[in-house]
Write a structure and sequence with these properties.
alpha+beta
């Protein structure tokens, strides 16, 4: 590994717009394409401080800097276009979180990497609307929050309340939201407002290990821990009334519910199993990477296909999980307001995936190409008239849900044609992270966080285990 000074590293970085930086070839060995990352002033400082600290420590300790990870992805076989860091990018396992990369399905050496999807496969965000206003909810917000807390299990190792047998799990892995619809946990229109209509057709439950299934069986309809949440939100500002009306958002003060969760222990195990298999495949096929966390296999190899089929099963599980929590959320609201979910207009606005790999058609240098898109900690953002977005949003573009951090706003955006050209129709997935979870635990006292939120009028319920 070449050790360079911070000043030497900066020679490979070029600011190409007010919010974009280019990573030139040579920043790390064997780059096939250039890298690019998007950042405002605050994120830019974090990115460069991360690089500076890595130079001073000579690369020892923790994850590689986000810039280095973006560049290492640019060195993977079969990559096309650029390795892209989106506006909440930060260091992760293998790929940076917020890193998007496309691989040419027509190239027999092109790879798929579990590190480019993440351990929480199809971690994503779903937004529900209601016809309630802030004035309806404020008087009962403590009771409503407690009702949600009672309905939806939370925390590490939490167990779900949705009945599921081993046979049900097999079917859910294959059918995704079609299973939820059949079992009565979803509305038919929920599927229409979900990526892939809530089902990846290439899923094969046989490619999901028994250990993964054992971990997933008791966890359906559970939120999990970490940065996952169910949040009751209020519309604070409407910037585009036409798009908002298409989504059923009609006025300021309207109450919505955002659900952020994924595939729980099942997805984590699918990724772990694949990494073990791919390390062996790399030796056999002589695939060289700059970072062993970028373990991968040729897309067309047995290991590559097995992973994509297992990953699709885990993605289907995640959609069923969010759908189950949607069902439980509707029940909690109906109970609190002595109504029905239908009368409360609790429709799904959209459901976006964060950690996923999908085969998509894109134009590259004027030619249509079939690509395998890795989106890790990033959100699909397709423009108006794209064939893969619902009829309801053909004129607005795909809704893009960007979750805020605690105490800050979330946003609903829409996809644009420029995004298709620059990032293969991808954007950031959330607020990003200034501190790692370990540093946050060391530096922040949870009582101070709860106190600060309380001063803002925000009520938060958490599970504390002793």
């Amino acid at each position: 590994m070449v050790i360079r000074t911070y000043n030497e590293e900066q020679q490979y970085l070029e600011k190409i717009s007010s919010c974009a930086w280019k990573i030139k070839k040579g920043f790390v060995p064997n780059m096939k394409v250039e890298g690019v990352f998007y950042a405002n002033d605050a994120l830019e400082k974090l990115m460069f401080d991360e690089l500076k600290n890595s130079c001073h420590s000579q690369g020892f300790g923790g994850f590689l800097p986000g810039m280095k990870q973006i560049a290492n992805v640019a060195a993977l076989p079969g990559i096309i276009g650029k390795s892209v860091g989106l506006p909440d990018v930060h260091a992760g396992y293998g790929f940076a979180i917020g890193n998007m990369a496309a691989f040419d399905m027509g190239d027999p050496k092109a790879i798929v990497s579990p590190g480019g999807v993440g351990f929480d496969i199809n971690c994503g965000v779903r937004l529900l609307r209601t016809n309630l206003s802030e004035k309806d909810v404020s008087p009962v917000k403590e009771q409503l929050a407690q009702s949600l807390f009672d309905h939806i299990p939370v925390g590490v190792g939490s167990k779900g309340v949705i009945p599921m047998t081993a046979k049900d799990l097999e079917e859910a892995l294959e059918m995704g939201m079609d299973w939820s619809l059949r079992e009565g946990y979803a509305w038919a229109e929920d599927k229409e407002h979900c990526e892939e209509y809530g089902r990846m057709l290439q899923a094969d439950p046989a490619k999901v290990s028994m250990r993964a299934k054992k971990r997933g069986l008791p966890q359906l309809g559970t939120l999990g821990a970490g940065n996952h949440y169910v949040e009751i939100q209020v519309v604070d500002e409407i910037y585009n009334k036409f798009a908002a009306n298409k989504m059923g958002i009609e006025h300021k003060g309207q109450v919505c519910v955002m659900i952020h969760s994924g595939s729980r222990g099942l997805g984590h195990q699918v990724a772990t199993d694949a990494l073990v298999a791919m390390e062996k495949a790399m030796k056999r096929d002589k695939i060289e990477v700059n970072d062993r966390q970028l373990a991968c296999a040729h897309i067309r190899s047995q290991e590559g296909q097995d992973y994509l089929k297992g990953m699709a099963g885990a993605a289907n599980y995640a959609w069923v999980n969010r759908t189950s929590m949607t069902f439980l959320t509707r029940q909690a609201f109906a109970k609190m307001f002595h109504s029905t979910p239908d009368d409360l207009d609790m429709h799904v606005i959209y459901d976006v995936s964060h950690n996923i790999a999908k085969v998509e058609e894109h134009f590259v240098e004027g030619k249509q190409r079939t690509l395998l898109l890795h989106r890790k900690g990033s959100t699909r953002a397709f423009p108006p008239h794209h064939p893969l977005i619902p009829v309801d949003y053909q004129l607005t573009g795909q809704p893009v849900l960007i979750g805020g951090t605690m105490g800050t706003c979330s946003y609903i955006l829409t996809g644009t044609e420029r995004g298709m050209l620059e990032t293969f129709g991808s954007t950031c997935h959330g607020a990003g992270r200034a501190l790692s979870r370990a540093k946050s635990r060391r530096n922040l006292d949870y009582t101070d966080v709860l106190g600060a939120l309380s001063e803002m009028g925000i009520l938060m319920l958490i599970l504390i285990k002793f």
